[in-house]
Amino acid sequence: MKPKLESMKDLHDKILKEINGTSTSTAEDISPSKFAELTKQLHDLSLITDKYSEIEAQIRDLLSLQQMLDDPLTNEDKDLLEMTQEEIKTTTEAIIEMEKELLLSMVPKDLADEGNALLEIRAGTGGDEAGLFAADILRMYERFAERQRWRWEEISKTHDGLGAIKDATIAITGNNVFGHLKYESGVHRVQRVPATETQGRIHTSTITVAIMPQPTEVQVQIADADVRVDVFRASGSGGQKVNTTDSAIRLTHLPTGIVVAIQDERSNQKNRAKAFTILRAKLYEREREKLALERRDSRRAQVGGGSRSEKIRTYNFPQNRVTDHRINKTLHELESVLDGAALPEFIQALRVEEQTDLLMAMNDEVA
Predict the structure, then answer these.
(1) How far apart are alpha carbons 168 and 133 in whole angstroms?
(2) If you write DSSP's letter for every residue of 37-50 in order, what string do you get?
(3) Which helix (H) or strand (E) holds 23?
(4) CB 187 within 8 A of CB 311
């Protein structure tokens, strides 16, 4: 690990010189965007190199204290001996804690963690019961978002009159939205007795959840020639709230085949803007998944990978139990989880597991 830290110190000094204009390798002025990028990189490296320097200073102090302990004069003075032994203990504990902090600061950071996210929920197997469960999970995330003081904006939602949801797409805006919710992608399973079940049998239904970072137009640029835009008349349920104008929008991204259709708004322009928001997110996520597959260590499974086909969590109503299968964590607080209050317990445990995986992968690379 030390060679990696030393290389980080060298990179820190190189970037600092470049920013100060003293680097011989940079003849031209730094552009504002490049300057912002270098400043952010320098800040992130400083968090690591400063901590490393503190640890090195503490280690030097510890060596000096150990030399004092080996000095016969120290052993002859009882008070000095006790004080030295206490300082050695305190310094050793401080070094251990600082090394833990240093390791965590070295974990590769996902820049998307700090930004906004798109939430997609789709009912899976189980018919109406799956749709009702999709509505429950949608409420869970909405309540969690309220607790985090995030902004919740409905992009599209298809539902029936009984409260069941076929699919829903939500834009969530705030600090570290994707970083909190990225572990939620996958298949969520419910086991309960439906209200329509007369013999008390437990039914199993599933829904899929997808969490995608929400990129800006600068991060994902879409060429006009790559998108086919179809305008059509929105359809509705039972003849109600049906647009009489061609306001619904369907986008087809020709290079990837991704299709996005929006008909929730009566305005063609609003539907178009929402559709492009979703398309940008899908294209951004597609590239992220491609990079993740290239970088992922084949020996380890990434906790935050979020495969939509992966069964990640079971909500068992008869046993008041919620189990996350990726980390084998169970809470007998189903109501609190569905209220969004206990959800952070799963999120924090998944974050720790991911950090552990990343640290082990780093150690493998160094070895």
Answers:
(1) 13
(2) HHHHHHHHHHHHHH
(3) none
(4) yes
Between the CA atoms of 184, 189, 193 and 194, what dihedral angle is there, to the nearest 10 degrees?
Answer: 80
* pLDDT averaged per 10 residues in sequence order, the chain, 367 residues: 74 83 57 78 84 91 91 87 92 89 77 89 91 96 97 89 87 94 94 81 93 82 90 60 66 93 82 90 86 55 51 95 95 96 95 80 59
Alpha-carbon span 144 to 65, nearest angstrom: 50
Rg (CA), the chain: 27
* Alpha-carbon distances of 87 from 64, 77, 92, 93, 102, rounded to whole Å: 11, 15, 8, 10, 22
Question: Phi and psi (nearest 5°) for 299?
Answer: -80, -20
Instruction: Give the sheet arrangement for strand 311-316, strand by strand.
Output: 151-159, 165-173, 117-123, 203-213, 186-192, 311-316, 321-324, 329-331
Q: What is the pLDDT of residue 42?
A: 86
Q: Which tokens go with 315?
A: 């909500």
3-state DSSP: the chain helix, strand, coil percent, rounded to 5? 50, 20, 30
Q: For 73, what's the count of Cα atoms within 13 Å in the CB-facing half-sphere? A: 2
**Among candidates 329, 280, 47, 252, which has minimal Cα distance to 169?**
280
The Cα 33–Cα 243 span in angstroms is 44
pTM: 0.70
pLDDT of residue 172: 96
CATH fold of 111-358: Alpha-Beta Plaits (3.30.70)
Partner residues linked to 230 by β-bridges: 250
- pLDDT score at 25: 52
Separation between Cα atoms, residue 248 and residue 270, nearest integer Å: 10
Q: Token digits for 282?
A: 């899908």
**What ranges do the domains of the chain cover?**
2-106, 111-358
Beta strands 117-123 and 203-213, pairing class: antiparallel
